[in-house]
Design brief:
Low-confidence stretches: none
Helix content: 40-55%
CATH superfamily of the domain at 23-149 and 190-236: Decaprenyl diphosphate synthase-like
Oligomer: single chain
Strand content: 5-15%
Number of strands: 6
Bound molecules: 3-methylbut-3-enyl trihydrogen diphosphate, magnesium ion
Mean pLDDT: 95
Structural class: alpha/beta
Length: about 260
């Protein structure tokens, strides 16, 4: 059975502009450069980055963000040296083991999106347990994108849609946007209102390519381990000043105010 679409699409209906983003999506970048700058191994930057995750989760909870999505490992990050990939996996395991209890107490619901099947069985099991343990929580929906790629997401959604609706193969013209979106891996969340990328690069790097269609994009040079509560508040302040037109004109917006 296809899951029901729970949130409106920004291309099918005009969403609101809440003063604090309902959904914040972040590319946590710059760990390696943070470490290199200090003559430390890149992996020290990743370890430090976990502390920033803690800080950001806590602050987003306090500020009333409902959905926080963090890009932790892309489908292209397997191309990194094997040592670094192994360390990242170990860090993922350790963090899940250590933090899930605390997340539960904070009312955080944890989900992991991405092609989890590629991970070692122990990590897959930890993910399953963490998701189950926090499944009743609703204060903050934290999603970790791991072995995630935006193109993978669109492909897996298409495959599942067609598997459930083989009749569409005979009538492709009948495929509507609303038929596909329930199968995207973040169908449970509204589209991101705000995207932040730390570390200075101005690209999407195969993150939520479908869902970012109308998201406000914010780039900062700050490396992820240095990203502070003040930096997030700066991003929120910038976000509040944006005029989100969703295809309309400024005059139309003024008229509807
Ligand atoms: C982001 O930091 C973390 C992951 C991709 C896992 P990087 O490791 O990409 O840091 P830089 O970009 O090399 O500085
Ligand atoms: C994007 O960062 C992925 C994550 C933060 C997990 P990268 O550092 O891998 O992106 P590119 O390769 O510089 O585009
Ligand atoms: Mg990087």
């Amino acid at each position: 059975m296809p899951p029901a679409a729970m949130h409106q699409s920004s291309t099918l209906a005009v969403p609101g502009h809440p003063s604090i983003p309902r959904h914040l999506a972040i590319i946590m970048d710059g760990n390696g450069r943070w470490a290199t700058q200090r003559f430390l191994p890149r992996t020290a930057g990743h370890a430090r980055g976990v502390q920033t995750v803690r800080r950001v989760v806590e602050l987003c909870g306090r500020r009333g963000v409902k959905y926080l999505t963090l890009f932790a490992f892309s489908s292209e990050n397997w191309r990194r040296p094997q040592e670094e990939v192994s360390l990242l996996m170990r860090l993922f395991v350790q963090t899940l083991e250590k933090e899930v209890g605390k997340l539960g107490e904070q009312g955080v619901r944890l989900r992991v999106v991405g092609d989890i099947a590629a991970f070692e069985p122990r990590l897959q099991e930890l993910i399953r347990v963490a998701e189950a343990r926090t499944a009743q929580n609703d204060a903050l929906h934290l999603t970790i994108a791991a072995n995630y790629g935006g193109r993978w997401d669109i492909l897996q959604a298409t495959r599942r849609m067609l598997a459930n609706h083989p009749e569409l193969l005979a009538d492709p013209g009948a495929i509507e946007e609303s038929a596909l979106t329930p199968y995207l891996s973040m169908a449970y969340a509204p589209e991101p209102d705000l995207f932040i990328r730390t570390g200075g690069e101005q690209r999407i790097s195969n993150f939520l390519v479908w869902q970012l269609a109308y998201t406000e994009l914010y780039f900062t040079d700050r490396y992820w381990p240095d990203f502070s509560a003040r930096d997030i508040d700066d991003a929120f302040e910038w976000y509040r000043t944006r005029e989100r037109r969703f295809g309309r004109t400024s005059a139309q917006l003024a008229g509807s105010a």
